[in-house]
Amino acid sequence: MSDNGIQGTDDIAAASAAPTEESAPSGLDRLDAGLTIGDEGSKVDEQLHGGGRRGVGIEGTIEGGGGGILTEPILVVNQKAKLIELSNQYTVFDQHGTAIAVVNQVGQSTARKVLRLISSLDQFLTTRLDITDSDGRIILRLTRPGKIVKSTVIVSDGNDVELGRIVQQNAIGKINFALEADGERLGSIRAENWRAWNFSITDAADREIARVTKTWEGLAKTMFTTADNYVLQISERAPEPLNSLVVASALSIDTALKQDDRGLG
Question: What are 81-100's pLDDT values in tens digits?
């Protein structure tokens, strides 16, 4: 146990590597699993309480939270570190270091995985992510239709009912997204620098209600793996569906922006 009481409970993270109902594990699935290294829960303490690029500098524990991704005030989203990545996988931790959800890319064909292995063309195709809790229930579904320049992420609940959309507004300069539902703009996500590492999330009145911060995974992982790690800090809980869009933003920014340099191509 760390000085801040964070435990690296990672049972749910191990379960995320299990084959889904969609397909039995293939040779490519085994390759993807074999190239997965490290423990994405081992640095949660540093990500939350450390300083500089490695952490967001939180002091103590933030009050509130109901144990799920839609109620916790702090979420740590860590991508599985892979030497070569054939599918997107993340583990979501609460502020105590407990894995409370997993994010898995679903619906990939063998041909799609081969394309991702040998090139970067996969970024232009539709990407689907399922977010499941510790009981395996789907909490959110994220769909990023095929893109050329700008991304849109469709956010749905576990029953595939659309809740809203995260819509990229520009491709040059500091990246901005609109949070929309039923054609209404509920809020925004604004990159704070041109490298699109840290984001401020605001409501329709332009008040900041959350922040997404990219934490540095270390030199070795940066150079040799595909891992990206983020911390979501919610300062004001928004009503639905904006709350779900805020949580989805931390789970989809990497897919929307950061998946352009994967594979061997």
Answer: 776 777 889 999 999 999 99
CB neighbours of 30 closer than 8 A, spacing ≥ 6? none
The structure tokens listed for 96 are: 């105590």
> Domain for residue 133, yes or no?
yes
Per-residue pLDDT tens digits for 165-220: 999 999 888 999 999 999 999 999 999 887 767 999 999 999 999 999 998 765 44
- Amino acid letter, residue 157: D
Whole-model pTM: value is 0.82
Rounded to whole angstroms, the Cα distance separating 12 from 80 reads: 13
Q: What percent of the chain has pLDDT over 70?
A: 78
**How many domains is the chain built from?**
1
Collapse the DSSP code of 162 into the 3-class scheme (helix H, G, I; strand E, B; otherwise coil) and give the result.
Answer: strand
CB-neighbour burial class of residue 41 (10 A; exposed 0-12, middle 13-18, buried 19+): buried
> Quick check: 246 and 169 in contact, CB under 8 A?
no
The DSSP output letter for 124 is: G
160: its two tokens = 């595939």
- Token pair recorded at residue 203: 């409501």
User: Does residue 2 lie within any of the structural domains?
Assistant: no
Could you tell me the CATH number of the domain that includes residue 100? 3.20.90
Return d(Cα 92, Cα 187) in angstroms, integer.
23
Q: How far is CA 118 from CA 27, 76, 85, 150, in A?
A: 15, 30, 11, 23
